[in-house]
What does this fold into?
Amino acid sequence: MRKKVDVSLPIGPVHPIFKEPARIRCETAGEKVISAEIDLGYVKKGIENIMKGRPWQEVMFLAERICGICSVIHNMVFIETVEKISEIDVPQRALYLRVIVNELDRIQSHMLANYSYCYTIEHETLAMYLLNLRETAMDLIELITGARITCAYMIPGGVRYDLDDEKMAVLRAGLDKLEKDLTRFDGMFEGGSLIGLRSRQIGLMSEEEGRISHAVGPTARASGIVLDERMNHPTYQKLGFEPVIRYECDNYARIKVRFQEIFQSIGLVRKCLDDMPEGKIRGGGIVKAGKGSWAGEAPRGELTYNIETDEYGRIVDIGIRTPSIMNIEACIHYMLKGVNSAADVTSTYISSDPCIACNER
Amino acid sequence: MTGYVYEKSLRNMKLRIVRAPLQNLAIKEISDGLDMNIQKFRAMLIENFDMSYLENMPARYDVWKGDEVPEFPDRLLFTGFLTKYMPIITEDEMDLLLTDISGKMSGGMSEKEAVIYGREKIRELILK
It folds into this structure.
């Protein structure tokens, strides 16, 4: 009989599956994971300290450099916090344009997350299909904002560029393509036997565990937790937003929530285009001294900015709580516990869509 | 190089995390609530928890603060937080302590004295 050996299994900091460095240490009995820990700090930026003392005009650009995948929401939440502190009103048209860009950013982020997951479970065909389709979403972001990643589209009191009828037609055509192709890819994911084998009942996190660790975003919503900052956002409330919730609590549910949310985002963008109010895209306003906190729903979940400004519009103090802080912790301490195979450790980790750049802000 | 990457002491990084504004605020509230030396509490956290736990501690603390629990003993002694949200003390140890406290209260100890006694015992359990 083979001797059973307890092993401490290190994964990372450099691993072919990881997009960014982190080191997971799994305590295993055979291949079953008993517990796991994570070491971070390989790419710490200290961006909050860099932001302190600088005027908002500079910090606005720094904020979207926290994360290259969800830069739009960092821009959006920073600007909305500043607007809240300074009581700056935003024209209705600009609010709708913000939702459009934010949802396009969510679409590309979710596609990248699902690409990473499919790649991790060795389903490279679907992975590459998704990565290719993501380019359509990136092109649409570029069409509206003029840039793919660091767009700096939102400014206090409005947005930089308007959307004319010609661009709206291109946007609608892009959305149709996204919806058509994604319906096929979603069907492939749902019906794939290999995918089911590698995803269902793996990486389980109960609703209670998700609540205790304050898991957020699709990671929490796949465990039946009704938590989405868009429910508290005035523009999304106008659009009749309802969060996507699933109850399987496994890797499969987390990926499916993202697929469903892409369809939902396509619907939201279409609704914005249909109901787009006429008028200005920029209001007025001066950044004042004050202190405030505001949260928005990033593709990975709740993103909170705590900001203090002075009378010259400089950032005196800033604290940023990114969603990956909560999700990585929930993944390491709950989802990985009890995983039966070392191969499932990486796929479970990737299913929580960890962003080390956000975590090591 | 391999030795450096794998065996690097993480204490400095962890110290930076626990001294970050949100973490500092939560740690101060807890150590003040337990009449405990903040540095000893920080040292215990650094020794016993990984970096993601420490990063997520303020969020866990906020969730615990949002829970509907009675003021005594849960809120005043941080019972749920120290067992469930940040597993510093085991459930069995906490149950024993709570049984001990309720025994002493039925023997005539006032609630105020029970809180002081409970906090002292919890400090011992945290630093053991």
User: Anything to note?
Assistant: The radius of gyration of chain A is 21 Å. Chain A touches chain B at residues 10, 13, 23, 37-41, 44, 211-214, 306, 317, 319, 321, 325-326, 328-330, 332-333, 359 (CB under 8 Å). The CA atoms of residues 66 and 224 of chain A lie 29 Å apart.
